[in-house]
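Lay summary. Proteins are chains of building blocks that fold into shapes, and those shapes determine what they do. In this project we predict the shape from the chain. Here is one chain we studied, written as its sequence of building blocks.
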Amino acid sequence: MLIIPTIIKEIETVLSQIEENKLEEIAGQLQKAKRIFVIGEGRSGLMAKSFAMRLMHLGASVYVVGETITPSIEEGDLLVAISGSGTTKNVVWTAEKTHSLGCSVVAVTTNPESPLALHATNILHVPAATKYRRENELKTIQPLGSLFDQCAHIIFDTLCLQYSTLNKVNHNLAFSRHSNLE
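And here is the predicted shape, written in a compact code that computers can read:
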């Protein structure tokens, strides 16, 4: 078995099931939000941070929950919460708190019936395997939640492309916001 073609096929299988109009809807929510907050744990948290970084390059006012400079969330803000299982306690609690404050929550998860999804105003269902290997999950040759995280990264980059189109942010403008302290 060739490993890279197999991984690419797994990613294609998942991404082919994502509704493009759902991504457009979420990109519109991102554009309308006063500020965007992101949260995730582990590798999913790294995907969330990469998403926040790219949104910053595109001119969004964006924060990573848990960082020392993250302000309080308030009306008009949006939380993007990522958890493959939809059961990660800190992510679920943050979504619940955000929802109780009247802010929108976009849940990115494999489980649209999860505790995370229950507190979301919008659910992006990513039908990939997680570390739990539930019966209904897609089979994968990869360990743990690698397939979910890979697909989340591509989905987040797709959302950023749609966001940049909505806000008319071209490469040069995004590049001007890129770190210059390296």
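What the prediction tells us: The mean pLDDT is 92.
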